[in-house]
Amino acid sequence: MSEFREEERLAAKRREEEAAAAARRAEEEERYQRQKEAADRQAEIARRREAEIEAKAAAARASAAGPPSRGHR
Length: 73
Fold this sequence. Notes:
88% of the residues lie in helices and 0% in strands. The protein starts with a helix and ends in an 8-residue tail after the last helix. The protein has one domain. By secondary structure, the chain is mostly helical. Residues 1-73 are annotated as: Disordered.
């Protein structure tokens, strides 16, 4: 009977270790997802800033070119 209890104790310990490992994996996956979402947000912000800068530069070039000419008379 003692041998049976030892096997049960070891099995219970193994289940606890497996559950702890699964919890760690879940936490790591959640942390990875949060980091990925943050990186995606930062990339979107950078894309928007770049588009805004390009739009301002295009407007400045258009303004520097002056009004469209009407041709020679």
